[in-house]
Design a protein that fits this description.
Helix content: 25-40%
Oligomer: single chain
Strand content: 25-35%
Shape: globular
CATH class: Alpha Beta
CATH architecture: Alpha-Beta Complex
Number of strands: 11
Structural class: alpha/beta
CATH topology: Spore Coat Polysaccharide Biosynthesis Protein SpsA, Chain A
Number of domains: 1
Strand order of the largest sheet: 5-4-1-6-10-7-11
Radius of gyration: 18 Å
Length: 230
């Protein structure tokens, strides 16, 4: 059995709400439980996970929703979200115990990621490289100008849709975030920050079940997908 040397940062600090209500998207129920709780319980079910840090909006860090305690309290911490996604991730990393040599970063808005995908990411990091879950692009891609006119058909060869979790050695991820702070730049995911310091990142096979729940129609899709095998 692997040592408990994996730390997980679940990014749930966004202030977006579901269409038609005031509830935070990451706290909204889907497939039987709040989105954040799906991911929290899934990662805590792994023997190699030492700690899961949920990065939430400041007002919830001291007064979280009660359902969040339907988890292993000894392996769960709440961290305060930052002004940017990168700052939120840094806050989460800072709260991980020193024993966490591997860090997984996961979006709370992806509540149904299969365990097999997490396995593939962790295995790749243990083998010595940063890794992200991703799926190859299968649709035809069009570049469109400001007037809505197609300017180019983009070749999809070699293009992948990034998902989470994304996994890194703690040292590499910290170096990437320090460089971003020093250079005053940001990125939409942690893999991009790691790429910018010249470290290789590989893709491992993701899953359609690891879809990102963004708007009202996605909730219905996630409900339909819940329980289906890959």
């Amino acid at each position: 059995m692997s040592a408990a040397d994996v730390g997980v940062v679940i990014v749930a600090a966004g202030s977006s709400t579901r269409t038609g209500g005031g509830e935070l998207k990451q706290f909204t129920w889907v497939a039987g439980k709040p989105m954040l709780l799906h991911s929290l319980q899934l990662f805590q079910s792994r023997a190699d996970v030492a700690m899961v840090v949920c990065v939430v909006p400041r007002e919830y860090a001291g007064d979280p929703p009660p359902w969040i305690f339907q988890s292993d309290g000894e392996r769960m911490l709440l961290s305060v979200g930052g002004r940017t996604r990168a700052e939120s991730v840094r806050n989460g990393i800072a709260d991980l115990p020193a024993s966490c040599r591997i860090v997984l970063v996961h979006d709370a808005a992806r509540p149904l990621v299969p365990m097999e995908v997490i396995d593939r990411v962790v295995d790749a990091v243990r083998a010595g490289t940063s890794a992200i879950a991703a799926l190859p692009v299968v649709d035809t891609l069009k570049a469109v100008d400001a007037d809505g006119r197609i300017s180019q058909t983009v070749r999809r060869d070699g293009l992948w849709r990034a998902q989470t979790p994304q996994g890194f050695s703690r040292d590499v991820l910290l170096r990437a975030h320090r460089a971003a702070q020093d250079g005053d730049y940001d990125a939409t995911d942690d893999a991009a920050l790691v790429e910018l310091i010249g470290e290789p990142v590989v893709v491992v096979r993701g899953s359609e079940r690891a879809m990102k729940v963004t708007d009202a129609s996605d909730f219905a899709r996630a409900e339909a997908m819940y329980g289906l095998s890959d």
